[in-house]
Structures are given as C-alpha cells and as structure tokens.
Amino acid sequence: MRVLGIDPGLTRCGVGVVEGVPGRPCKLVAYYVVYTEPDDDIALRLLHLDNSLAELVAEHKPESVAVERVFSQHNVRTVMGTAQASAVAILAGSRAKLPVQTYTPSEVKAAVTGSGTAGKAQVTAMVTRVLGLDAPPRPADAADALALAICHIWRGGTRARIEAAALKAKQLARRSRGGVR
Asked: Do the Cβ atoms of 70 and 86 come closer than 8 Å?
C-alpha cells in the first residue's frame, strides 16, 4: 500500500510518501515540506497549499491519504491555520477520489513508538529506524508526515479492512432477511 501522509500546517505542511504492509518495515518513497509566507494573503497561501498537494498526489499516486487530526490548542490563531490547512489536505485526497483517514497525534505516536505520549525526538528516531534512513528526516514536519503514513499502513489499512468486512456482513445480513434497503 502506498500512503501519502500529511502533517497540516499553514506555514509549513509536511508531506511524506511511504509504501508498506501492516506488520512489516516500510519503504520511504519521498518527503517534502510545502512552505507559505506568513505575510501573504490567506487565500493565496491556501491556494498554494492546495496546488502543491494536488501535484504531489498526482505525482506519487497514493492509494490513500492520512492527515493529522486537528486538536485543541490554546493559541486560537495557530489552531485556525492548522484547521484550514487540514481541510485543504483532506480535500486533496477526496478530490483524487482516495480514502482519507485522520489520526490524532497520540494515535500516530502510539503506532510508531508504542507510546501515545512519546516526544517528537522519539517519533523522529523511530521513523528513521523503521524506514532504514541514514539520517533523520528534516524538518520535523516531514518526520511527522512520514509517521502519519506509517501509522496508516500499520493501523489504518487494517481498520479499513475491518470496516469493509463489517459493511459486507451487514449487507449480507440484510439480503438474508429479505431484501436490500
């Protein structure tokens, strides 16, 4: 499975592309950081992010997209920019008709390090190890995006298969009761 992970941010948006299967080491395809200028108009910044993500989806042809879920912060201005960037990231996957899954930072940390309270340094170290890299991906936004992609491969792929199996079982049960609704 090829996954495009996105760590949304308005000034710096991390993007990582990883291939793998659950329970196995993953392979790095590429990673990027999309930058926008804080002094630029918000509409131009979001448009640049949208165009950049669309290009990366078209270039790498992922099978799914994993985006970090926005969580509450004390700085409203920061959370607003992150939420706007997150919406653009979700739309990039949706527009390409790809399944999009969101993960909390704790879910990503737990998937990659085994602890939902791991620090950034631990996450970066594990991403480096899991992908067999010679050096940690920089900046941290790129490492976080790669961690999201790894999380989705290890957890999300399994989650999607479980949901698909449950849906199929539900449909079969409906048919056996005398019709599809």
From this structure: yes
Point out the catalytic residue in the list 7, 50, 107, 144.
7
Told to judge if 7 belongs to the known catalytic residues of this protein, a careful annotator would answer yes
Token pair, residue 134, equals 């010679």
22-68 pLDDT tens trace: 888 899 999 999 999 999 999 999 999 999 999 999 999 999 999 99
Set 50, 107, 141, 144: catalytic member = 141
What is the token pair recorded at 40? Answer: 């630029």
Q: Which of 39, 55, 59, 68 is catalytic?
A: 68
Q: Which domains does the chain have, with CATH numbers?
A: 2-176 (3.30.420.10)
Long-range contacts of 35-42 (CB under 8 A, 24+ apart): 35/11, 36/10, 36/11, 38/11, 42/84
pTM: 0.85
Here the tokens at position 164 are: 């698909």
Is 141 among the residues known to form the active site? yes
Amino acid identity for residue 82 in this structure: T
Cα end-to-end distance, the chain, whole Å: 33
Q: Is residue 63 annotated as part of the catalytic site, yes or no?
A: no
Ramachandran sector of residue 149 (left: φ over 0; alpha: ψ -120 to 50; beta: rest): alpha
Are β-strands 64-68 and 2-7 bridged in parallel, bridged antiparallel, or unpaired?
parallel
pLDDT of 69 over the 80 cut: yes
